[in-house]
Amino acid sequence: MKFSATDRQKTLYINGLSGSKPLIPIDANKLRETAKERLSTEAYTYIAGGAGREDTMTANRQGFNQWQIVPRVLNDVSERNTSLNLFGQSLNSPFLLAPIGVLEMAHRNADRAVAQAAKNTATPMIFSNQASISMESCARILEESPHWFQLYWSQSDELVKSLVKRAEGCGCTAIVVTLDTTLLGWRSRDLDLAYLPFLEGKGIAQYTSDPVFMQMLEEKDDTAAKQTSRNINPTSLAALVGLAWRFPGSFLGNLSSGTPLKAVRKFVNIYSRPSITWENLAFLRQHTSLPIILKGILHPDDALKALQYGADGIIVSNHGGRQVDGAISAIAALPDVVKAINRKIPVLMDSGIRGGADAFKALALGATAVCIGRPYVYALAIAGSEGIEELINNYKADFELTMALTGCKSLEEINKNCLT
User: Fold this and answer.
1) How far is the C-alpha of 273 from the C-alpha of 366, rounded, in Å?
2) How confident is the model at residue 260 (pLDDT cuts 50, 70, 90)?
3) Are 318 and 324 in contact (CB under 8 A)?
4) What is the tens place of the pLDDT at every residue in 364-410?
5) Which residue from 263, 302, 61 is spatially nearest to 179, judged by alpha carbons?
6) Catalytic residue IDs
7) Mean pLDDT of 119-132
8) What is the pLDDT of residues 12-34, one digit of tens each?
9) Dist. CA 80–CA 391, nearest whole Å
10) Stretch 100-114: mean pLDDT, rounded?
């Protein structure tokens, strides 16, 4: 059944007559604050926080305010079409679900809940490299619904190859290489709590389900052991017990073998590679025929290099303000990147999308599609898979109504003339 923005709006109002309120708040700020009440301090801090003073997060939102929509009237918008074709797949809207790790902090069903919502709304899901559930488990839920895989380039090329082959094997139709996390940003909120979820074994399911990674645990690694050594006290013992429970296999077996702790140590030591350069992309191309999308492009010269080195698409993103404090906003970077690309490959955008009007502005500035980030995690924390499904439908309705009320009946009619 074709999605209708007006039907979505009517449903919310009609349900209100019987006393039924929306599962999740419509307002973005209320959504975040409601989720905060459901999350632990550590979880909310990790999800909501950014780098340094969080000036980049502020810039992401302020950047949208620099552009105003200019509605045009007396256009026939009784029939509207929000569909597009992206990398050979037909999509019903310009929204995708960005890769977000450690979703077990928000809900016990974690990535499975996201996959179910993505399937129910036919919204592409980008599997996180730092997922709480393996890509294979999520792919079984999604079936033919579009899904991509986000790759963090590990210190091990063998592991990179293995992850990519697994992504191909479970039906992923693109590889998204995240470029802006070769080192972990200075995240003040997390540092104040001295908390990193990976050290508890959270968010490493793509690794513990990977045969190459598990084989690597047999290698001796004194450096990794030193980096993750901790004082023995009730807090650290509780963390070890929790790690043994979460790790695949039996609890007692995990405790006696020490494998979970080895896995955490190995992950910390190899998860990212600061030495990666443009030349490394040739290695990836040798090992996959899937479209390669580069995520984290903010400079037009890097966009041109992406073309030069054979990228099939790019995502303009500053990682939601989590990596570099004081960086340019994604929406401010978008026009110059789009100009440099000159329609040769698709340009997507994330970082700061908080509703349909934001998506409309991004498309008017040249984006092909946009990725939703933190808001769907807040929806997950509040109401699980149903919360995410409701959020997606709200964004789709908001976007379609914004498009129509601006005088556009299809994505092709959205351009920079719609903005001032």
Assistant:
1) 31
2) confident
3) yes
4) 999 999 999 999 999 999 999 999 999 999 999 999 999 999 999 99
5) 302
6) 319
7) 98
8) 999 999 999 999 999 999 999 99
9) 21
10) 98
Alpha carbon 67 to its chain centroid, in Å, reads: 24
CA distance 262 to 186: 25
> Measured on CA atoms in the order 153, 157, 161, 162, is the torsion positive or negative?
negative
DSSP for 77-110 reads -SS-B--EEETTEEESSSEEE-----GGGT-TTH
Task: Find tokens 């302020």 and name the residue.
Answer: 62
CB atoms within 10 A of CB 22: 15
If we measure between CA atoms, which residue out of 114, 42, 192 comes closest to residue 371? 114
CA distance 158 to 106: 31
The tokens describing 344, both together, are 């040769």
Q: How far apart are CA 121 and CA 103, in angstroms?
A: 19
Burial class (CB in 10 A: 0-12, 13-18, 19+), 152: buried
3-state helix, strand, coil in the chain (%, to 5): 50, 10, 40
Instruction: Tell me which H or E stretch contains 147.
Output: strand 147-151
Mind listing the domains of the chain with CATH numbers? Answer: 28-68+82-189+273-402 (3.20.20.70)
User: Which helix (DSSP H) or strand (DSSP E) does residue 191 occupy?
Assistant: helix 188-193
pLDDT of residue 362: 98
**Per-residue pLDDT for 328 more than 60?**
yes
Distance CA 164, CA 284 (A): 9
Tokens representing 335 are 């026009």
> Which residues are within 8 A (CB) of 27 and not within 5 positions of it... i.e. 6 or more apart?
none
